[in-house]
Amino acid sequence: MYINTFKYKPEDVACVICAEYVKKLGCTALSCPCLAERMEAGTVGYAEAVAELFPYRPRLTARIMRLAESFPGTMWQDNTHRKRMETLRLLLGCRKERDTPEFFAALYLLTSSKELADRTFNCFFRGGIDFRYARRRGISSHDYTLLMAAKSLYCHTAEVTQGDLAEPQIIPDEAFRLLINALLIARFGLDALKITARHGQREYTLRRLIRREAGGNAPSAGLLFPSEGR
């Protein structure tokens, strides 16, 4: 049996060797064709990553820009958040059919605080997550928002929608940051946790200019939350 252990390095995904790169213009692609590979190599910045998640949405753009500008240099709440998630992964072991990006995104959200981790510990089993076992009585509004977001991501339900993300009254800033980070994990897997810089290797100013002149119709990865009326 052959096991592929190859991992992309920054020099393997340099923009200057890409067919979409033009010397005087930089990257001319509307969406980076090597984003997953660059994510693995750790050369994607937070601002570019969140820009790739969303289609053009005027009500959400300003909030996304503020989020990117305030990126603290890590996807974790703090070091205890990292330890809680890593410890739970160790306890659960590895199961290929269970360990999807959506599973890790939910795991990231549900271990973001000790209280939420304690309330949802019984939801985890070797086959996945069963949200019926979460202890909701007396839960804070912040933790309840994260619990419902985790369920939306993992079960593809509509407890949290795209419209909710644009409303600070529904999803306050701290919960919003964690939800966007979870969406990055759901889109790119655990490689998203490698993001440590606000701006990465790729220059994408031209892409934004073209998107604006095209009326916002440039392709996008889109959100994993179900949209309204779906």
Précis, in short:
The chain is mainly alpha-helical. The protein has helices at 35-41, 46-53, 58-69, 79-92, 101-110, 114-120, 141-155, 162-165, 173-188, 205-213, and strands spanning 21-22, 26-27, 124-125, 128-129.
What order do the SSEs take from the amino end to the carboxyl end, as H and E? EEHHHHHHEEHHHH
The chain-level structural class is: mainly alpha
Poorly predicted spans: 205-230
Largest β sheet strand count, sense and barrel closure: 2 strands, antiparallel
Termini Cα gap: 43 Å
Please give a structural write-up.
Helices cover 44% and strands 3% of the residues. The protein has helices at residues 35-41, 46-53, 58-69, 79-92, 101-110, 114-120, 141-155, 162-165, 173-188, 205-213, and strands spanning 21-22, 26-27, 124-125, 128-129. The strands form two sheets. The protein has a two-stranded antiparallel sheet with strand order 1-2. A two-stranded antiparallel ribbon has the order 3-4. A hairpin with a 3-residue loop joins β1 (21-22) and β2 (26-27). α5 packs antiparallel against α9. The longest helix has 16 residues, at 173-188.
Secondary-structure blueprint:
Elements lengths: L20 E2 L3 E2 L7 H7 L4 H8 L4 H12 L9 H14 L8 H10 L3 H7 L3 E2 L2 E2 L11 H15 L6 H4 L7 H16 L16 H9 L17
Helix pairs in contact: 2-3, 5-7, 5-9, 7-9
Descriptors:
230 residues; mainly alpha; two-stranded antiparallel sheet; two-stranded antiparallel ribbon; 10 helices; 4 strands; globular; disordered C terminus
